[in-house]
Design brief:
The protein is α+β, with helices and mostly antiparallel strands. Helices cover 38% and strands 15% of the residues. A 7-stranded antiparallel beta sheet has the order 1-4-3-2-6-7-5, with helices on both faces.
Length: 328
């Protein structure tokens, strides 16, 4: 089991990839796949995990998170109205120097066992623009379509190889600069799902302030001090997606969280297809936090809908912060 120190370092460590050095964004782009597919008798074991970060994602997301919740029966015990029917997600996991973009979809092995999904994961440079994220998710969507239309392991190997070539080719196109992104707070404030007087956004900001104080930057704090300050306890919330696509929702909420927590903090956005919400996880999540992947809003209601009243002092500060975005 990873030690506490390694968990802390995982939140902030550069981990640009084995031997990455001063490699270009094209060379720092990787693609891998794991999970279940009819071309294999059991879990896919063919594809390399070419970077330390992808190895960590495989363990945290698949071995610990998905397998842990399956083996424990946590999802099985949910009634149908409290459980999503299956895996169908885009996730974006932003770290200090790289981002993992993935797609999760229902699948099975040669025997027909369908408890586990198939996952395609791309590692890209820094935190990409929304435009770049849309491009990566588009490639992953094509990979999903191709993989689900074949039962051949050899075909899947070719699909993943071609997919990485496409991602690397596109990385060169986005190398010249990042377009200006809209203010995430303004975008969220304009979202009708935030409710009257932006109460939903106030609830999110209150939870961040109340539960995520240790993840916020401190004046003059260096990396060593940050490592000592952060606890291993992750935090999470569910909120309206406030975007037209999964890629746009993930980009919006991660950009918003980067205005709220230290930029060295790991931030994971999980966006289920066809659902109006997003799960945002801060820190290094464990089995309990990743339970949200299959939980419906009846099991985990959005933070924006939890009926409580923040303190008056907090509301006064929010009145000032959100005044420019007040709706007439």
């Amino acid at each position: 089991m990873r030690s506490l120190l390694n968990k802390l370092l995982a939140m902030i460590s550069p981990s640009p990839g084995r031997g990455a050095g001063t490699a270009s964004p094209v060379e720092r782009t990787f693609l891998t796949a794991f999970g279940k597919h009819p071309g294999w008798a059991d879990h896919i074991a063919d594809f390399a995990l070419p970077t330390d970060r992808l190895s960590m994602i495989y363990k945290a997301l698949y071995t610990d998170g998905i397998r842990g919740n399956i083996d424990s029966g946590a999802w099985t015990r949910l009634s149908d109205d409290r459980k999503l029917p299956g895996f169908d997600h885009v996730f974006v996991w932003r770290f200090a120097h790289e981002t993992i973009v993935g797609m999760i979809w229902p699948s099975s092995d040669q025997v027909g066992r369908s408890e586990y999904p198939m996952i395609a994961c791309a590692q890209v440079e820094e935190f990409p623009s929304t435009e770049r994220l849309r491009n990566v998710v588009g490639v992953l969507s094509d990979i999903r379509g191709q993989c689900t239309s074949t039962t051949s392991a050899d075909a899947v190997r070719n699909i993943i190889g071609h997919g990485q070539a496409r991602l690397r080719s596109a990385a060169g196109e986005f190398e010249s600069g990042t377009p200006t992104e809209p203010d995430p707070l303004a975008t969220l404030a304009a979202c009708p799902a935030m409710g009257p007087e932006l109460r939903g956004l106030r609830f999110v900001l209150y939870q961040i302030e109340r539960e995520m104080g240790l993840y916020r930057s401190k004046p003059g704090q260096d990396g060593a001090a940050f490592t000592k300050t952060i606890t291993a306890r992750p935090q999470q919330f569910r909120a309206p997606a406030c975007a037209d696509s999964q890629a746009e929702a993930a980009s919006l909420w991660i950009r918003f969280m980067l205005t709220q927590v230290d930029r060295r903090t790991a931030i994971l956005a999980l966006v289920p297809a066809g659902c109006p919400w997003i799960d945002v996880l801060v820190g290094w999540p464990g089995i309990t936090q990743l339970f949200c992947m299959r939980a419906s809003p009846k099991q985990i209601p959005p933070t924006t809908e939890i009926p409580y009243e923040p303190p008056a002092e907090f509301n006064q500060r929010m009145d000032q912060l959100l005044a420019p975005f007040a709706r007439s």
